[in-house]
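Troubleshooting log. The previous run stalled partway through. Resubmitting the same two chains, unchanged.
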Amino acid sequence: MAREPDYLGVSVAEWTRALKSENPIQRRLAVYALGEIVPRATSAVGDLIAALDDPQPYVRVWAAAALARIAPERDEAFAVFRAALQDELAFVRSLAAWHLGRLGSRLARAEEAIDHVTALLDDANPSVRAEAELALHQLSGKGAPPVELRSLVSGS
Amino acid sequence: MSYKPIESYGVIGDLHTVALVGKDGSIDWCCLPNFDSPSVFASILDDVKGGYFRISSLYEAEHKQMYLPDSNVLLTRFLSAEGVGEVVDFMPVQESGKKVHQIVRLVRAVRGAVRFRLECRPAFDYGRQPHRVVLAGRGAVFESDALKISLVSRFPLCQQGDGVVVEFLLNPGETTTFLLRQMEEGEDGDLLESRLIGIDLLTQTLAFWRNWLKNCRYSGRWFEMVHRSALVLKLLTFAPTGAIVAAPTAGLPEEIGGVRNWDYRYTWIRDAAFTIYVLLRIGLTQEAQQFMGWLEQRAIEGGRGAPLQVMYRIDGSHEMPEITLDHLAGYRNSRPVRVGNAACQQLQLDIFGELMDSIYLYDNDTAAISYDFWRYLRRMLDWVADNWLQPDDGIWEVRSGRQHFTYSKVQCWVALDRGIRLAQKRSLPLDHTRLMGERDRIYETIMAKGWNAARRTFVQHFDTDAVDASSLILSVVRFLSPTDPRMLGTLDRIMAELVSDSLVYRYEVGKGAGDGLTGQEGTFNMCTFWLVDALTRAGRIEEARYIFEKMLTYANHLGLYSEEIGPRGEALGNFPQAFTHIGVISAAYHLDRKLGKGG
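Second attempt completed without errors. Output:
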């Protein structure tokens, strides 16, 4: 019998139950876990779509990221990212930019994402700006050299 | 998890403490906030209860490690068919301001997409103190009664028991940063944004080490090994006082499954002479100055029953009660695991010679000592003149009863000799007649009782015919000419009886004065470098070079040495060990000079 897909030894069913937790940290973990499992258990897609409406914006972003990994063409995930890039909380904006960068050119609407992320280059928060810069590299399909190489070269 | 070879570790640190990072990406030893604090990770001493912080590729991978050039920033690589992953580990050095102790771990996929697994399971106070885990938006906080640490992670952590776990996929070229830091009293759980901080800290840390190494003037043969040894010595330095720990670990065995498992997280006066000597030789004057300041304080404080204690804590305090941690299984079942060190109460007469030798050298090469310091030293010299006839516990800290050790007597001679020379050179007040008389009495006593004419060798102590590798130092401290027949006879006898495949045992267990413990031990790395020194000084250059180069093959993949080497070439004892790295520098320096430019 095929082994039931799990993340860290916890089954899809248990992670799905955790989506109902009152603790947003647990809900975030659950959507992340489902995102890790989803490539092997598409039954969880529906639960991830439902999590796009979570009351916490960062949980929504993680759900969108998980969904975009297996269904990059879905508009619901992209809409969550677009809203998160304009969230009032800097860490949510930064998180959304980071996820978009990670998805990179696999994202169906990568060109559109580049426009939205470019706007964050003028963000008031340095962390958001840095994350946006890196995300743009990745969305454009450019790799970054190892970070220490710059230090080693400039210090020599 | 099983125990990894001792030599499979790299070391990172922040001049207050270190972490040992295995080739598998697991941090298996770290004490916070200082070298001699209780451990937070100690799975090297107990793979179940000790605690660890591992980040490794989930693919079946070959593991490699290297230091980024001229630094103590460690790169651990995971090479597999699916992709190549890397972890950059370092502890930022903060030269001023509030000291925050942290381990930064930059994880990245450099070829292909790589799946990683992070597992962080601290075990506070050598695994004796429970803690609670609080998951937060940016990571987790681990709280024990005495210490609180946080782990910052971009990926959501999952609590499993008293640890946290996460698995994550990095795309080609992608980097993520994990930050483990000690939280200050009253600091809340609001965790820092790790990515920006991590990259900034990497830039600063690389710059720190590379700028520091520029002070090292050595450019002879084997300079990469000398530079690595210098970097290790600096890493073992406690920045607030300048003291250098003998090694940053406790309980790593001198014999697998054996009982010789000591705590080396202290500063031995003995190491001072050798340390000051090599630091000055390669231009690291600032470190020598700071260490000399620390030594001066100890000399002024005095000891119990003698003017100096054998060893001290890194902050200069005197107490280090020895206890055994019986709840720990020990490295590959090597128990007991000891913390603290009872040898601090021993009488080891050699330390006065080593101290005076270092002071003499320092006064000669760097800066003249003060009159007030001299007054303390003069009192110490008087004590040595009155007490050199006492038996003592010797350089190897035997626990089987005191003897008249030849090495201890030689170092008493060194103490008086250097004191007399220093007073003459600087015209400092001293009872020359009395001290010169005692110095000469020591010399004649050693020649009469420490020399075995039948075996043509100096012996370990006055009541044995057994040899001891510490006699190799006799020409180094100028007690004897390197080509004196007695020195050459001793050299030949030691090579015949204590050397195995170029490696040197400190003595033959079961002969002479043992350490009072059961079992065997490995060859002693410092003694091998003393042999190289003695051969070099005796003009036996090719033998010296052969042994030295062979000894280099016993360093680990990063150029690090422990205290001893076992029969299969494995590292034994605490790791990495300062004394051995001092030996590397000293032997390389002298051998290179003898070989000259063309060699």
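Takeaways: Chain B has 13 helices and 29 strands. The domain at 6-212 of chain B is CATH 2.70.98.50 (Beta-galactosidase; Chain A, domain 5).
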